[in-house]
Amino acid sequence: MAEAVGSRTATGSTTAGGCAGDPCGSVDAGLTRVFALLGKRWSGLVVAVLNQRSAYFADLRRAIPGISERMLSDRLSELAEAGLVLREVDEGPPLRVSYRLTEAGRALGPALEELRCWAAAHLPARAPDGPC
């Protein structure tokens, strides 16, 4: 017979590993913050593109098919506010804005590579006629 992971105390609560009446522990606060930022649609892709090179707004838009100008602008602002992206204005004419990762943003590179490898091993490939 298999042994239960947690055991009940005399009061009915559970010891480590149990789940009765309470979620099985809480979610890590660090992971909560990471996914609140990078879990938003497009944010991870913006960081992934900028991890390869700095880019102008139009270059980012071309590199991420399906993202609207408004959404790209919003995500870049959020990532800049979080300290992951730097916005640099190149004096014109023409006036151009480029974006690059900060040191904190570049530190996400190994994690993004791990996620890419995990996806290649565990997620089915999209059909050729599907979105990128």
UniProtKB/TrEMBL annotation:
Keywords, ordered alphabetically: DNA-binding, Transcription, Transcription regulation
Top-rank lineage group of the source organism: Bacteria
SUPFAM superfamilies: Winged helix' DNA-binding domain
Entry's Gene Ontology molecular function annotations: DNA binding
Pfam family, one: HxlR
Domain HTH hxlR-type span(s) in chain numbering: 24-127
PROSITE patterns in alphabetical order: HTH_HXLR
Keyword Membrane carried by entry: no
Protein name: HxlR family transcriptional regulator
Source species: Kitasatospora viridis
